[in-house]
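quick one, 827 residues, struct below
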Amino acid sequence: MSKKGNMLTSDLTAPAPKITLRMPTKRSSPEDTYVNGNAIKKRKSDIANQGQAIPAPEEGDENARIHEHYTDPSRFAKLRVEDEQIGIESRENIQKDTVTHLFSQDYTFLAQKPDHRTRPIWVCDDGRIILEAFSPLATQAQDFLITIAEPVSRPARVHEFKLTAYSLYAAVSVGMETHTILDVLERFSKVKLPERVRNFIKECTMAYGKVKLVLKDNRYFIESTYPEVLKRLLSNLDIAKARVVREDDNAILSFGSKPKELAEQVNGKTNGTSGGNDNPDNFGAVITLDEDEDIDDESEFVHSFEIEKSQVEEVKKHCIGMDYPLMEEYDFRHDALTPNLDIDLSPKTTIRDYQEKSLSKMFGGGGGRARSGIIVLPTGAGKTLVGITAACTVKKSTLVLCTNALSVEQWAREFRNWSTVKEGQIAKFTADDKKKFVGDAGIVVSTYTMISHSGKRSWETARMIEWINTVEWGLLILDEVHVVPANVFRRVLTTVSAHTKLGLTATLVREDDKIEDLNFLIGPKLYEANWMDLAQRGHIAKVEATEIWCGMTSDFYQEYLESRPGKRRLLSVMNPSKFQACEYLIKQREAAGDKIIVFSDNVFALDYYAKKMGKPFIYGGTAHSERQVVLARFRGDTPQSYQTVFLSKVGDTSLDLPEATCLIQISSQFGSRRQEAQRMGRILRAKRRNEEGFRSRFYTLVSRDTDEVQFSAKRKRFLIDQGYEYKVVANLEQLIPPEERGKLHLSSRREQVELLEQIRSLSVDASGDTMGEEDGSASDLPRPRFGGSKAKKLEEAARRAERQRKEEAKAKEKTKHSLFKSWRAGK
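---
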């Protein structure tokens, strides 16, 4: 913290001085417990040390400082609060009751307005905003809160939001101003807007939105209506060196000088190169005026200076470090150098109101400009159509990146279905299809892996990559954008030259801390829809979620307790009770006419379950042609069609199966909230059965008294925050009638012991996946009808042999004497 006058700079997430945190005395959390003497002494020491300065980072570690500055939310969450001592007396004066101890904070000190009953929100002084969803003004308040705050939890009656620096940055990026945010919050709030929240909003929005990065005529400009801001940016030597000064700049503004005087100052000094002025105090010939404005009012002028294209990323980092993050906009209407694409929406295409609202956040600035950012819509709500509409609006070459080849086929098919694109104007770039579009402009649909892979490529693939990297793409659409922060996919954004970027996802969550990188790599979140609201309006299906607890047999549980973590995960999935629950649910739901997807991350379990029940399955090793056959028969409605298909995690994202109305999950990726929500999305499309009162069904099978219980509790968190409720079936007897259980597989102890012996013979990794079979027991299983591919298996065997050869060569190299190594290197 840093002291300034009588004020202190603090973090918004820290407790307010007047708030008392009280927890049950049995808990001993160093962050939340303040009722014992040690905790109070620690708090006092914190207050005593508030005036100490935080050591500045070393100058040589600039990149690390910039990264920490932007990716750490608390770095932006700064506000000023009065320096008040927190006394023990104030804590003891709080009236005790039977409910207060259940909550971490007490907000009773916030005085209500006289007409508070007619207002829909509570604004707490730690940045939390509580919305009464039953209020007559809830709809208007929700639209506003989605723009300025992050949704935390949205059940049926009460919604919780959180003000963050990133959410306020996104609000400013779509045109909201500081006074508007404050005025509307004050109008909706039941209590007077807390001063610390008011200060936080002012400080976060004071610099955000003041500077834009505009690509115009294939030239990058730093643009602002505030000359003093540009002056501050140019005081940074690295930004000053990145500027470009051209001889044809005819209307120039110098800070403190009139345009005509400045033109005389810089006459003969510009040379068309970057870094033309090494003196940071001399800002002549660097700022240009937008001549379309009235020259009598200089405050309305748009001032700008050009920067080198190769230095754009560095300039963005330095601007972030100076608390002026750049808003990226593309002036596509006036871009005469990038070829136009003749494309429009098909006459039969209509977009829904929430899709139009999300696109208005991208194009709402007017003047034919597009903002880069992220749109969050649940699966089945039409993310693909949003991307296609954006491409039809920009009308420039578009590159679409997906997670797998199936998604590539779906995007190409949807472009042809919903737009007027001609056949030669759209091309696919996958392992099996490498074509360029016809003409100067077109659409290419590919995968992240095809673009970002850094290993050896075939000659044809390398030529295609080289061509893609040389094209000036008007729009880059990133499907399932939550995968982009992975390091291997981040290369895409540094190699592909795109004027504007649009990220699409249903779940803007990751289990690591890299989701916030999207604010820098792509742009702020432009729009996020309410799942339950769309379900109530019939745009996505209503879902009944059920968690079924499956007890383990004594033999399996004894083996579970004696095994390592990897084998434990496999035993949890292969639990005979879980198998019987899955088999019974499939029979029950098929009889009811449902189309069923069964998910398993564990490939051994996927293989065993599917073959034991005689069902088709798809996993990573399944050939693309086989996948198409299985999915086509699943989508069909004939006697030969499949009612059930087993999928590995390859089906988590970008899989279009609108016919699916029931999902059973037997194995998952630890506690991944994202995966839970993505799988729920497979049954949200509401296209096949729309009879009155119909609900899709989502079943999660959990082995009792295992690690799956803890993982399941974490996985449900995202969907519960979206308003979904989980029904829990605590015993298998509540699901399966006793007379039916004996008819299911693995009902006899002999079958269970045989399965257990088979599992014991397997070698598994830490995640529970098999690394190979011992004693060849697994090979006794019948060959699957689907899921196997001879070409794929041969390819995997060749890769294993190549890896083994390299490891043997590396081991042989290590055994050589260092003297011979030096001699060979010199030779």
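The CA atoms of residues 318 and 629 lie 52 Å apart.
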